[in-house]
Amino acid sequence: MSESKSGQRVPIERFPFTVIVERKRRDDKPWTIDHWSVIGLLPAQASKGFEKTMLRDDGHLSQYSWSG
Length: 68
Hints:
Layout: E1 2-3, E2 9-10, E3 17-24, E4 35-43, E5 51-57, E6 61-67
Antiparallel strand pairs: 1-2, 3-4, 3-6, 5-6
């Protein structure tokens, strides 16, 4: 529950979704770190935990979906 501006308790709505993230490896410069970015959001089914699924990995570019 959350409290509204008027002080009333209201239920919190939750919207499950899946986040698609992408990691680009930076092998050309050893002092740099990998670049991560969110590339998509999708509706998902409600679940009790989180789940990571690898979608793609070619050595330089990896994509994962995180649901929960």
